[in-house]
Hints:
This protein has about 120 residues and is of the alpha+beta class. Helices cover about 40% and strands about 30% of the residues. It has a domain at about 40-115. The chain contains 2 helices and 4 strands. Strands 1-2-3-4 form a 4-stranded antiparallel β-sheet, with helices on one face.
Amino acid sequence: MGALRRISGSTLVETMVASVIFLCVFVISLETVSRLTLSENDTVVLVEADHRIKENFRQYGDGRHEEGLYTREYDWGRVTVVIRPYVNYTDLQELVVTAHIESISKRLELRHIVERSE
């Protein structure tokens, strides 16, 4: 039998230092992930913004409004409606309804081509 080899291992202090470093990295990454996900209030704001987009589309999508920019302010941000002529068609309008949500820096947009009614 040969001589026994001595296997070196970590000391208790080295193990504790490595554990603290690992724990700090884990806590920082967990906090970052929680900031990236939507909170419950953000979900409510997104649902309300979607509702307001559809509401403004129903109001301005009838083809009877003049071309231009219409804006409505809400607690969470604003909805803008842009009505412009559709390219090469005099009887059609392009309708773009956009919600700008300021608290989470998001923008939702709905685009449609509507028939102009006079």
